[in-house]
Amino acid sequence: MPEPADPITGLAEHAAQLHEMFLAFQHAGFTENQALELVIALAIHGNSDG
Predict the structure, then answer these.
(1) DSSP string across 1-50
(2) CA atoms of 18 and 44, how far apart (whole Å)
């Protein structure tokens, strides 16, 4: 019997990571709006290393 497909899609995995990042920014002391703006900026522009 074949293994079942992974129930977590790539998009769902990425969304969960963004949510964890949002919560981490808030835990670090950023306001909800600041945390959201940071997550948006990182989602749009990504990591500029390199």
Answers:
(1) -PPPPPSS-HHHHHHHHHHHHHHHHHHTT--HHHHHHHHHHHHHH-----
(2) 12
pLDDT at 8: 86
Query: Considering the entire predicted model, what is its pTM?
Result: 0.76
pLDDT at position 5 is 79
Angle at 47 between CA 46 and CA 50, to 5 degrees: 130
CA dist 48 and 26 (Å) reads 22
Q: Are 29 and 8 in contact (CB under 8 A)?
A: no
